[in-house]
Design goal:
Strand content of chain A: 15-25%
Strand content of chain B: 15-25%
Number of helices of chain A: 9
Largest sheet of chain A: 8 strands, mixed
CATH class of the largest domain in chain B: Alpha Beta
Distance between the termini of chain B: 31 Å
CATH architecture of the largest domain in chain B: 3-Layer(aba) Sandwich
Oligomer: heterodimer
Strand order of the largest sheet of chain A: 6-7-8-3-9-10-12-11
Helix content of chain A: 25-40%
CATH topology of chain A: Rossmann fold
Number of strands of chain B: 12
Radius of gyration of chain B: 21 Å
CATH superfamily of the largest domain in chain B: P-loop containing nucleotide triphosphate hydrolases
Strand order of the largest sheet of chain B: 6-7-8-3-9-10-12-11
Number of domains of chain B: 2
Shape of chain B: globular
Helix content of chain B: 25-40%
Largest interface: A-B, 41 and 42 residues
Number of helices of chain B: 12
CATH architecture of chain A: 3-Layer(aba) Sandwich
Largest sheet of chain B: 8 strands, mixed
C-alpha cells in the first residue's frame, strides 16, 4: 500500500480495469413530513453496463438529467448503486473490504469548477500531499519530493508549492486539481467536464496535458462531457446517455462515422458546426427531456424520436451489437 | 444564409467609433475597451468573439450605457444608434432608448428573471414602459411575443412563475422581453451557454427566424466559434480590449490573418475530422491595467518580431471588408 513507484502494477494498454454491470440508481420520492411514505422513484440511472480500459478514455455524453453525473458519483463511490455491481480488477467493490480499500485510492476525480474544488485555506503543497498523508505511510520529505515531481508533471514550477489557490488562474488551478488526482498513482480518473469552465485557448492546453499524462501513466479516464468535439478529440470509447440509459456505446471513430441511434444523430446535428460552410442535417428535436420520475412507456426516447414506430411506445428495446464493440438500444436495428 | 457582401447596401443602424471604456481601480486604470470601431447594418448579425477579460462584455455594457460610474467611464468615442449619438445623452433619455431601440438578452435565465413576478407581468412591464397603449392591448401584445418565441400554450403559461419553467423556456421568455418593443438592435450575450445542446439548437433557430421576420440586427457576444459559424455574417475578434481582426465570417474562417485568430481556430477541437493534437496557445493574456506598449499578443505570438514589442500595429486592410491589427499584414 505504501509504494510511490507503481510500475509493477501497471496494466497493459487496453486491458479492462473496471467493469460496471447493470448499474441502477433510484432515488426515492417521499411525501409527508412526519409519516413519510415513498410515492415513486426517480430512475436517475437505469441499468447501464460499460468497461474502462487502461490507457483509454470512455466519454459519457448526454443532456442534463440524463444520469451522467450520477454515474460518475457511483464510480467514485459517492453514491451506492440501488442494484448492479462495480468490478475492479475482478473483485466486487461493494462486497469486499480489501477491494474497496484499493479502489478508493485507485480511482480519483477532477471536477468541473477549479474555483470550488480546491480548499482556499490550504497551500498547494498541502493540497497535493493530502491524499498521500491519508493513504501512504511515507515521510514528509518523500511527500514533498513527490509534490515537486507532480507539479513538474502538470507543467507548474516548484515555487508554486507555497502559494494558495487564489493566486492561480483557472487553467493553472485545473492543473493543480490534476496533480492532486495523480498523487496516488491512480488507475482510473473520473473527469467531470474538466475544461468547460475554462477559456478557449486554455482548454487546448489542459486537453493536451491530459492526453500526455495518459500516455505516460497509462491511466484510464472516464470523461463526462456535453461537447461532442471534445469527446472526439479525447476519447477512445463513447457512451451516449438518455434518461438514465446508455442508448449507444461505440468506439469513437465508429460513432462519428456511423452514428446509428436517432438520439445520437440528433445530438450530432444539434452540435455547433466547425466551419460556416459545414453542411449539417437539420434535426431539431421537439420538446424537452421527460421527467425521470415518470418516464414514457416503451423506448424512453419515442416521444421526441423522428423515426418512432408504433412498437416503440409499447416494447422496451434491448441492447444489440451491430458491429464489433458498437452496441445500441433501438428497434430500428 | 445572408453574407456580408449582400448586406453592403442596407443602412447602418449602429455605428461605434473609437470607443474607449476605462475603469479606475487601485491597481491603476483598467483599459477594458480601448479604441474599438465597427458598423452594424440592418438585418445583419455581428459576432464579437474573445476570451474572458478581452472586453467583450464591457463593450456590451457600453452599448447599453450600463457601465457603473464610478469606477467605469466611457472616456471617448461615439455610439451612433439610429442617427443619434447615445454617449453624451442623459440617463432619462437613455432609459427611453434602452429596451425600445436596443435590447439585451443576457446569459443566465435563472437570474435575469424576477422570481416573484409571473412571466406575463415581466413581459408586460417592458411594453408598458415604452409604449403608450391601453392595458388590454398590452396583454395582447405580451401574448403575441410569447407565441412568437414558441412558448407552448402561451395563454395558460403567462400566469406561471419562472421557477415553473425549464431553462430553455425561461431563456425564451428573456428573448420575448428583448423583442417585445421591436428594437432595431438586439445584443445577445452568450444566450445559450447554460442550455443543453438540443435546446440550444432550438433557441438559435428561433433567433434566426425572428431576425428574418423583423429585419433585426443582432450582436452575438460569445467565446464559441461554433456559434459564430452557425449564426454570424461578420465577426470581430477581440483581444485585450481591442478588435484585432474584423471581417466576414468566411474571411475569418478561411483566411485568418491575425496570429491570435489563427491560433484560436486551431485550438478548438473539431467534430467533423480527427485532429491528432490541438494547437495550444501558451501563457495568459496580459493584465488590462498593465498593457504593453506594443502588441498585447506579442508575448504569446508564434511569429513575433521586434517591431511588435515596440509599437502597437495599426489596423490594416487584408482585403475588402477584412481588417487585422498586425505588423505581419502588408
Amino acid at each position: 500500500m505504501t509504494t510511490i513507484d507503481s510500475s509493477e502494477t501497471k496494466a497493459e494498454r487496453g486491458q479492462v480495469l473496471l467493469e460496471a454491470k447493470n448499474l441502477k440508481k433510484y432515488f426515492p420520492v417521499t411525501k409527508g413530513l412526519l409519516i413519510s411514505r415513498t410515492t415513486g422513484h426517480i430512475k436517475a440511472v437505469d441499468d447501464i453496463s460499460f468497461a474502462l480500459r487502461a490507457g483509454e478514455t470512455l466519454g459519457v455524453v448526454g443532456e442534463s438529467g440524463c444520469g451522467k453525473s450520477t454515474t460518475a458519483k457511483m464510480m467514485l463511490m459517492l453514491e451506492e448503486p440501488t442494484e448492479g455491481s462495480i468490478l475492479f480488477e475482478g473483485g466486487d467493490v461493494h462486497n469486499s473490504a480489501a477491494v474497496r480499500k484499493s479502489y478508493r485510492s485507485s480511482v480519483q476525480a477532477v471536477f468541473q469548477d477549479p474555483w470550488s474544488s480546491l480548499n482556499p485555506r490550504m497551500r498547494v503543497k498541502d493540497i497535493i500531499a493530502e491524499p498521500m498523508v491519508i493513504n501512504w505511510n511515507i515521510t514528509k520529505a518523500e511527500q514533498q519530493e513527490r509534490v515537486m515531481k507532480l507539479l513538474n508533471d502538470v507543467g507548474l514550477n516548484e515555487y508554486h508549492s507555497n502559494l494558495f489557490p487564489h493566486e492561480f488562474s483557472g487553467g493553472q488551478r485545473q492543473r493543480l486539481a490534476i496533480a492532486r488526482a495523480l498523487a496516488l498513482n491512480p488507475r482510473v480518473i473520473v473527469l467531470d467536464e474538466p475544461v468547460s469552465a475554462l477559456d478557449v485557448s486554455i482548454r487546448a492546453q489542459i486537453m493536451n496535458l491530459l492526453k500526455d499524462l495518459q500516455e505516460t501513466y497509462n491511466v484510464a479516464y472516464m470523461l463526462i462531457a456535453h461537447d461532442l468535439a471534445t469527446v472526439r478529440y479525447m476519447c477512445t470509447w463513447v457512451a451516449v446517455m438518455y434518461l438514465g440509459q446508455i442508448v449507444e456505446l461505440s468506439p469513437v471513430q465508429e460513432l462519428f462515422n456511423n452514428p446509428s441511434h436517432p438520439y445520437t444523430k440528433a445530438l450530432m446535428s444539434a452540435a455547433l458546426p466547425s466551419h460556416p460552410d459545414t453542411e449539417q442535417e437539420e434535426i431539431i428535436l421537439q420538446g424537452e427531456v421527460p421527467s425521470p420520475l415518470n418516464p414514457p412507456p416503451g423506448c424512453y426516447f419515442h416521444p421526441r424520436c423522428p423515426a418512432a414506430m408504433d412498437r416503440c411506445s409499447v416494447d422496451t428495446p434491448v441492447v444489440k451489437e451491430i458491429s464489433e464493440g458498437h452496441t445500441l438500444t433501438c428497434h430500428l436495428f | 444564409m445572408v453574407t456580408a457582401d449582400t448586406r453592403i447596401d442596407t443602412e447602418v443602424v449602429l455605428s461605434v467609433d473609437d470607443l474607449r471604456t476605462h475603469f479606475t481601480t487601485r491597481w491603476g486604470t483598467v483599459k477594458a475597451v480601448d479604441g474599438i470601431s465597427f458598423d452594424l447594418r440592418r438585418g445583419e448579425t455581428l459576432g464579437i468573439v474573445g476570451e474572458s477579460g478581452c472586453g467583450k462584455s464591457v463593450t456590451m455594457l457600453s452599448l447599453m450605457r450600463l457601465i457603473p460610474i464610478p469606477p467605469g467611464k466611457i472616456v471617448s468615442g461615439s455610439i451612433v444608434l439610429d442617427g443619434e449619438d447615445i454617449v453624451p445623452i442623459s440617463e432619462q433619455e437613455m432609459a427611453k432608448i434602452r429596451g425600445s431601440k436596443i435590447a439585451l438578452i443576457i446569459q443566465d435565465p435563472m437570474t435575469s428573471l424576477n422570481p416573484v413576478f409571473s412571466i406575463g407581468d415581466q413581459v408586460e412591464e417592458a411594453i408598458k414602459i415604452h409604449q403608450d397603449i391601453p392595458k388590454r392591448s398590452i396583454t395582447d401584445r405580451a401574448l403575441e411575443v410569447l407565441r412568437k418565441v414558441n412558448i407552448p400554450a402561451a395563454e395558460s403559461r403567462v400566469k406561471d412563475y419562472p421557477h415553473q419553467m425549464s431553462g430553455g423556456m425561461r431563456q425564451r421568455v428573456v428573448g420575448a422581453i428583448g423583442i417585445s418593443c421591436q428594437p432595431q438592435v438586439l445584443i445577445a450575450d452568450e444566450p445559450t451557454t447554460s442550455l443543453d445542446v438540443t435546446i440550444q439548437a432550438q433557441y438559435l433557430k428561433l433567433l434566426k427566424d425572428i431576425q428574418k421576420e423583423s429585419d433585426l440586427s443582432i450582436i452575438f457576444i460569445t467565446h464559441d466559434f461554433g456559434i459564430v459559424a452557425k449564426m454570424c455574417d461578420r465577426v470581430a475578434v477581440m483581444y485585450a480590449g481591442r478588435i484585432v481582426e474584423h471581417g466576414s465570417v468566411r474571411d475569418i474562417f478561411n483566411n485568418p490573418s491575425h496570429p491570435y485568430t489563427e491560433a484560436l481556430l486551431a485550438s478548438v477541437p473539431r467534430m467533423d475530422r480527427v485532429v491528432d493534437r490541438l494547437y495550444s496557445i501558451e501563457g495568459q493574456p496580459p493584465p488590462l491595467h498593465d498593457l504593453p506598449v506594443g502588441c498585447a499578443f506579442a508575448n504569446r505570438c508564434p511569429v513575433v518580431m521586434d517591431k511588435c514589442i515596440e509599437t502597437y500595429p495599426e489596423i490594416k486592410a487584408v482585403s475588402d471588408g477584412h481588417t487585422a491589427a498586425c505588423w505581419k499584414v502588408e
